[in-house]
Amino acid sequence: MSINPMKNNMHECIIINEGKRPCDPTGNQHNDSRVDWVKWATGYDGVGNRALHRKYVSGRNQRIHKYNPTMIKLCSWNVRGLNRPGKLPILEDTIKNIAVTGVSETHWKTTGHFTTTNVLGYNTFNDRMMSVKLQATPVNTNIVQVYAPTSIASEEEMHHFYEQLTEVVRNIPTKELLFVSGDLNAKIDTTNNDGHLRSVVGKYGIGVRNERGDRLMDFCIENNLFITNTNFKHHIRRLYTWQSPCGQYRNQIDYILVRNRWKSSVRDTKTYPGMVCGSEHNALVAEICLKLKKAKN
């Protein structure tokens, strides 16, 4: 199997963990935090849609665990660069028990991929988002990994980002499982005083909602997505995803979103401060009731 890498530079990376070391990209690398990243993924084009069998759905109280599930872990992590000698092996060892990891801000200029058995295909949309389709039970699973513009970005750039992300999400079949994960650079707070937003965000968000948070909430409402790491009660150290280098400020700006239809498939989402790779962001991990399958060539 051979896939020609995109010529433009990629900002996102998705790692499917099967005990193989992904290929190290070659070529010129640099430390600019806004451009020139790498993707890790593989598969083939022309993926067909797989119909959802009726037996897997039982209304609002669907229970995937009745159908021989496996609890897998999906991780999203802004690693803040992988050019420092020895950092890549540290990251690989840290995520060895994670089934799928979406990595942001690698600071790698070139692109690359490696082969794996349960990936049906992947797409790179722009320098801030990519998606991968996994063959799984009860339905195929799509993961969109993103890195939103920071607070210094213009309003036009922010609008363009969400416009493209909305297009990506709406082109994924509604019957398939969808996750949108990554550093969204938004603070959303909680819904203690906003009961009408419970379909979007849970009771355990932190921080004070800002303008970027309002935009993220609007995106979730429009696309029927739920913010999973606000749905589970944990200690504050398991909720914040970023802290300042001095340790004085802590925020929740990284998220894992899921379609509301499959909300019950996510059994827990929390950060792991003990997973260290030299980044001020914490690894955000969701436990999902899902069984990955090998893709047929």
What are the defining features of this structure?
alpha+beta, 12% helix, 26% strand, globular
Describe the overall structure:
This protein has helices at 87-94, 155-170, 211-223, and strands at 12-16, 71-78, 100-104, 119-126, 129-134, 136-137, 141-147, 177-183, 225-227, 242-243, 250-251, 254-259, 266-272, 283-289, 291-292. The radius of gyration is 18 Å and the shape is globular. The strands form 4 sheets. The chain has a 6-stranded mixed sheet with strand order 4-5-7-8-12-9, with helices on one face. A 5-stranded mixed sheet has the order 1-3-2-14-13, with no helix packed on it. Strands 6-15 form a two-stranded antiparallel ribbon. With 297 residues, the protein is of the alpha+beta class.
Summarize the structure.
The chain is α+β, with helices and mostly antiparallel strands and 297 residues long.
Number of strands: 15
Strand content: 25-35%
How would the global form be characterised? globular
For the largest beta-sheet, the strand count, sense and barrel status come to: 6 strands, mixed
Tally of contiguous helical segments: 3
End-to-end Cα distance, whole Å, is: 9 Å
Topology, pairings included?
Elements: E1 12-16, E2 71-78, H1 87-94, E3 100-104, E4 119-126, E5 129-134, E6 136-137, E7 141-147, H2 155-170, E8 177-183, H3 211-223, E9 225-227, E10 242-243, E11 250-251, E12 254-259, E13 266-272, E14 283-289, E15 291-292
Parallel strand pairs: 2-3, 7-8
Antiparallel strand pairs: 1-3, 2-14, 4-5, 5-7, 6-15, 8-12, 9-12, 10-11, 13-14
